[in-house]
User: Which sequence fits this backbone?
C-alpha cells in the first residue's frame, strides 16, 4: 500500500503562507457521484475526477472537498458509511483515491474528505454485529438501542424527530419475525446514530482520522458536527433548553471530542485542518467550536441562507466577522452545497432566503434575475475576508432541476416528507461537460446509458466546454474572480472596512486599495472613484453599476 505524504515542496496554493492556506482558500466541493464518469456506468468516479484535475487547476481552486466516497448502500447519498477505510466500488478503490490525492497535490490542490461521526450505515460491521448480538449486549452499547414504550414496546422510546421527517427511531425485527428493541437515527433508518459516550467510538474515529491523514489528506469536513453528542437519558425536546444542554444539538461535551481530534490533526502538522458542518442559529455558540484548540473552521450557513438584501447580508457579514475575530478563526463564505437549492434558482424567487422547511414543488423562479444575482453574490462572497467554498456546478451557473420524474428521486428527504419536500437531488444532477445532449460528456463519448439522475435536455449552453469559450459566461466570471483572488494579496484572509454608498449598496475596502461594491437597489448606482476596474459581474451602464451587480475596483 502506498502512502502519500504531503511534501514540503508542494507549491503553495493561494496567497497566504502554506500553514495558513485554509484561512483564505477557495475550496471546491466534489460530489463524486455527479462530477465525471470515466468508466461509463452513468455514475461519477474517482478516475473521472483525476481526468478533470486540469479543469480544477485552471479554475483556480486550492483544495477539493469530497463528499463521502466510502462503501455505502447510498441510503443517503453516501452519508451512510459502511466502511471508513475503503472506497465504494462505484467510485474506484483505495489505490485510486491515493493516486488522486497525490496527483491533485501535483496540481497544487489539497484534498479534504468527509467524516460522518454522528452515524454509520446499517450495513456497517458494528451495527450488523449489534443486531445479531441482541438486547443488552456490549455490541448494542455503541448505538442507541432502547426498549419501546407501551405495553408491548410498540411505541418509540421518545418523541425525537428525524431531521429528514418522521420519527427518529426504528424498531428491530428479530430473526424470528418478532419485533424487539428500537434504535435511534436522527437521519434515515439506514443511518443508526453512534453513542459517543462509548470509548470505542472515540477511539475508532481517532484511527479513521489517522488513516486518512497518513494518506495525505489535508482536511476533514465533519458531517453534522453539532449533533454528535446525546444526553444519555434521552429526554424529550422542550421548547427551550439551556445552551449546551439540548438533548442532542450543540451539547457542551462536543468541545472535548473535537479537542481530541485537534490534537491528532496537529500531530500531522499545522496545515491539516478540521472543518465543521455546524448549523446553529446562535453565532456565539457557533464560534465556540472555532476556539484555537477546537476546530479550525466551519461553514457559515447564516450568510448562505440570508435573503438577497443589503441590510440582511450586511448584518450577517458583520456578525460573522465579529464572532470569528473573537476566537481568531477565519470566516467562511458559502453560496451552495449538495443540500441546498442552487443559487441561480434561489435568487430568482420572491423569497430569496434558504430554509429546508420552505422547499416545495412548483415555487416559481426568474432564472435570468437569479443568475444576475448569483454572479453578483459570487463576487461579493469571494471578496470577503476568509475562505470561499464553491460547490460543483456553481461555477457553471447550473439551475436547480425541479422537474425530476418523482420515481427517480433518490434523496430520502423527499420520501420521508411524505412527498411534500422535493428533496436535494435537483442540485446533484451529473455535471454537463461538453456536447449538445445528455450525457454532455459526463460519461464517455458514445455512452448511451442513463446517468444516475437524468440531465435536462436543454443544458447544452451550460457545459464547461461552451462556457470556456464565452468571456461573459459564469465559468469565465469564476475563473477570473478566483485568479484575482489568488493574485491580489488583498483578497483571502484579512479584514475589511465598510464604505458608505447608501442603504442598498454593500461596499467595503480590503487592503491595498481593493474595493468591492454590490448594488441591491432597483437601478444603477455610481461607483466610488477608482483607478482601475478589476472585474464586474455585469457590464456597466453609462459608467454606473447596474442593479443586482458587483464590481471589484482598485481605488487608492
Ligand atoms: C449533512 C450532509 O451534508 C447531508 O447531505 C446529509 O444528509 C446529513 N448531514 C446526514 O449525514
Assistant:
Amino acid at each position: 500500500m502506498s502512502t502519500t505524504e504531503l511534501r514540503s515542496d508542494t507549491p503553495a496554493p493561494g496567497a497566504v503562507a502554506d500553514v495558513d492556506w485554509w484561512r483564505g482558500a477557495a475550496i471546491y466541493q466534489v460530489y463524486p457521484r455527479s462530477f465525471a464518469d470515466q468508466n461509463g456506468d452513468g455514475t461519477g468516479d474517482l478516475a473521472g475526477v483525476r481526468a478533470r484535475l486540469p479543469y480544477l487547476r485552471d479554475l483556480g481552486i486550492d483544495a477539493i472537498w469530497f463528499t463521502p466516497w466510502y462503501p455505502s448502500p447510498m441510503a443517503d447519498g453516501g452519508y451512510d458509511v459502511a466502511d471508513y477505510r475503503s472506497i465504494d466500488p462505484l467510485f474506484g478503490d483505495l489505490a485510486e483515491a491515493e493516486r488522486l490525492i497525490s496527483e491533485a497535490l501535483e496540481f497544487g490542490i489539497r484534498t479534504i474528505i468527509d467524516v460522518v461521526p454522528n452515524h454509520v450505515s446499517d450495513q456497517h460491521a458494528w451495527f450488523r454485529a449489534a443486531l445479531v448480538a441482541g438486547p443488552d449486549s456490549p455490541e448494542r452499547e455503541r448505538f442507541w438501542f432502547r426498549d419501546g414504550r407501551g405495553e408491548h414496546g410498540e411505541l418509540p422510546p421518545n418523541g425525537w424527530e428525524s431531521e429528514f421527517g418522521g420519527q427518529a427511531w426504528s424498531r428491530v425485527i428479530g430473526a424470528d419475525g418478532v419485533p424487539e428493541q428500537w434504535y435511534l437515527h436522527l437521519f434515515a433508518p439506514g443511518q443508526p446514530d453512534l453513542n459517543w459516550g462509548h470509548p470505542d467510538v472515540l477511539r475508532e474515529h481517532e484511527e479513521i482520522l489517522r488513516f486518512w491523514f497518513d494518506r495525505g489528506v489535508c482536511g476533514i469536513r465533519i458531517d453534522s458536527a453539532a449533533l454528535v453528542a446525546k444526553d444519555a437519558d434521552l429526554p424529550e425536546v422542550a421548547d427551550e433548553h439551556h445552551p449546551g444542554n439540548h438533548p442532542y444539538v450543540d451539547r457542551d461535551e462536543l468541545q472535548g471530542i473535537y479537542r481530541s481530534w485537534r490534537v491528532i490533526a496537529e500531530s500531522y502538522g499545522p496545515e491539516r485542518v478540521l472543518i465543521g458542518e455546524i448549523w446553529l442559529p446562535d453565532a456565539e455558540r457557533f464560534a465556540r467550536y472555532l476556539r484555537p484548540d477546537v476546530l479550525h473552521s466551519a461553514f457559515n450557513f447564516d450568510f448562505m441562507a440570508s435573503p438577497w438584501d443589503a441590510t440582511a447580508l450586511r448584518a450577517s457579514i458583520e456578525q460573522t466577522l465579529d464572532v470569528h475575530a473573537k476566537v481568531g478563526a477565519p470566516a467562511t463564505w458559502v453560496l451552495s452545497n449538495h443540500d441546498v437549492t442552487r443559487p441561480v434558482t434561489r435568487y430568482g424567487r420572491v423569497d430569496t432566503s434558504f430554509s429546508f422547511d420552505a422547499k416545495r414543488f412548483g415555487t416559481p423562479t426568474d432564472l435570468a434575475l437569479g443568475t444576475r444575482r448569483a454572479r453578483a453574490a459570487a463576487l461579493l462572497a469571494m471578496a470577503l475576508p476568509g475562505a470561499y467554498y464553491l460547490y460543483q456546478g456553481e461555477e457553471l451557473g447550473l439551475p436547480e432541476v425541479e422537474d425530476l420524474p418523482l420515481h427517480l428521486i433518490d434523496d430520502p428527504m423527499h420520501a420521508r416528507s411524505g412527498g411534500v419536500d422535493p428533496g436535494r437531488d435537483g442540485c446533484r444532477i451529473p455535471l454537463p461537460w461538453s456536447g449538445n445532449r445528455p450525457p454532455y460528456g459526463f460519461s464517455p463519448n458514445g455512452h448511451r446509458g442513463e446517468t444516475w439522475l437524468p440531465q435536462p435536455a436543454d443544458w447544452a449552453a451550460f457545459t464547461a466546454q461552451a462556457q470556456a469559450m464565452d468571456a461573459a459566461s459564469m465559468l469565465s466570471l469564476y475563473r477570473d474572480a478566483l485568479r484575482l483572488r489568488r493574485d491580489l494579496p488583498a483578497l483571502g484572509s484579512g479584514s475589511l472596512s465598510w464604505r458608505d454608498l447608501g442603504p442598498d449598496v454593500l461596499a467595503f475596502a480590503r487592503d491595498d486599495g481593493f474595493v468591492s461594491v454590490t448594488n441591491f437597489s432597483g437601478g444603477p448606482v455610481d461607483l466610488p472613484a477608482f483607478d482601475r476596474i478589476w472585474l464586474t459581474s455585469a457590464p456597466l451602464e453609462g459608467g454606473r453599476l447596474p442593479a443586482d451587480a458587483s464590481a471589484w475596483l482598485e481605488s487608492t
